[in-house]
Fold each of these.
Amino acid sequence: MSELSCTPTLDGLLPYEEAVERLVAAAVPLSDRAAVGLRDALGQVLAEPVTSGIDVPGWDYSAMDGYAVRAVDCAAAGVELPVSQRVPAGASPTLLVGGTAARIFTGAPIPEGADSVVMQEVCEAIDGGVRINARVEAGSNIRRRGEDIAAGNEVVAAGTRLQPQHLGLAASVGVAELVVCRRPRVALFASGDELLMPGEPLAPGKIYNSNLFTATALLQALGCEVVDLGIVEDTLEATKAVLRRGAREADLVFASGGVSVGEEDHVKPAVEALGSLDMWKIAIRPGKPVAFGHIDGTPFIGSPGNPVSLFVTFLLFVRPFLLRMQGREDWRTGSMTARADFDWPRPDKRREFHRARLAFDASGIGRISVHPSRSSGVLSSVTWANGLAVIPEGQALHRGDEIAFLPFNELLA
């Protein structure tokens, strides 16, 4: 028995949580590493932590434009001091002579001997000097050395998917290159003699292949390289041939359609003939026939062909698998709770991830409405929605009940 085998539910379906945990446990992080420049690192996953070799800031500096002084010289408002030097950002100031002030600007180093900066708004320039119209406290308006980052501190952890702020932080400590994980290569194909590519004339009985473009964009959004294997005819031999090719060329083979048990569904028997099918049929709606296995050691995931089922199962299963393959620990699907703005009197035996929209009322309370169609063929419902409402199996809901909501802005990042 495969290590992914487990006790199914009474109706023969694998529980959602167990399916995700076991799928992710089978994801082997890629070991390939590469050093890339900061300009090429956006969206990639950091393989080695970034550690600062310097203090940031590297010296005490002024938090604003004003005058650097000794607080002891400004114990009362109205003190007049000669200005002994001018210190712009990037300058190297000299020692501040007691009883004098230094004109200083934001970001400029604090002269040795000074212990405060007085903002220019409470000062008056006078002939050769400055009148300080406030009492000064030692340490005011100074940013201290190492206040942001101390030398030796880890500033970006391994496993982080690099965003613009991470790249700016690495640059701030002088790091020019980052060691990142190789982008996963995912071989993608769609099964179905009914499929046509957009731009081709639409013939009777044919539909346009939306799944290829949905899946490609989902994969690219996760930083993957896509190996497009196109549309595969509904025969066992053609399916086996494309699976062999995908297993040779990629780190993961992802199939849309053909994973059920109809006479024209050839993916499941093809995977079983070439390797192993380790998981199939999950207790969710939509997307019950999610397949997972291996072909010559290469992992395979198959989703149903209905476009909503593909979209939902990708977010719930393929996304965490790929995140873990990239070495990320933040693969779990985050959720929030809000109040149902609908009644759900007839629950399914399976957990339902229904297309939903979260909005906030005038009181700031989050309320979830659901799309009127439960059909997994209504692709427009996922553009109407901004997330998925999690409707527990076997549980009726009433308007005002709190339920879980999975926002797309989390799932698509």
Amino acid sequence: MEMVAAAKMRKAVASVLATRDYANLAWATILHLSGKTDSSLHPLLLKQNGAKKIALILISSNRGLCGAFNMNVTQKAIDSIKKHEKDVDNTDIIAFGSKGRDLIRANKYNIVADFKKQDITLNVNDVSAISQMIIKDFIDKKYDKVFVAFTDFVSSMNQKPRIKQLLPIIQQPDDYLGVVGKSSGIETTKEFIEEKAQRYLQKGEYKYEYVFEPSPERVLEHMLPRLIEMQIYQAVLESEASEHSSRMMSMKNASESAAEMISELTLTYNRARQAGITQEIAEISSGAAALKE
């Protein structure tokens, strides 16, 4: 199982690294656009005054034997709900993965949707149903905010559960996916972008200016839903890489523990066998001595 998990982990890590920079740069672009364009141009940019209804997408696994992977991300979601439960009327859970669904249900939280998750997410179409649902519900004002709970892949030894706000689109601390807020190889953090923009402005080399063709409404109408879908897809890839890494380490630890247990049991068995042999020799010697007498 360790070898199988290692093979799956390599594929999952390759997939997550291949799309991480695109997802982060796309998110950075839309954050800049949301700050430079009128929020009334698209309902996904509207910021409600006080969130009363919240949706949380919980991404977990379908299989166990992966250590505390599912428990950690579920507990992170529960902590987030408890943190805001005084300010909101209700929080609806959208489950993507059977293990997280079962854990969150055991804690008596409201699950409004349960999407079937494949063991390996092949393309963005696997999450399109979730993105369409939350976008429609947000536009219809069923929810004031939408979050996603997933596990960020840092390394094969380190995975960190996170809560990320998807809607409405606003700048948040630790907003980018992957390596807990930093893109691998391309800087997309808020501080870096603002510092770079300020430096260009001082030199007169660069200004924030956006040209929309054919119109801002048409561009945002096509761009924003696709971006939300991409963020969910990337969160799923991060979770899958984390899942297989966690399972590989769990199976490695289990194998090492089993080897130690076998060694200890073998030593105990040999001692017992030697004690039995010694006792039998002593009994034979005593019997032989008695016969001579």
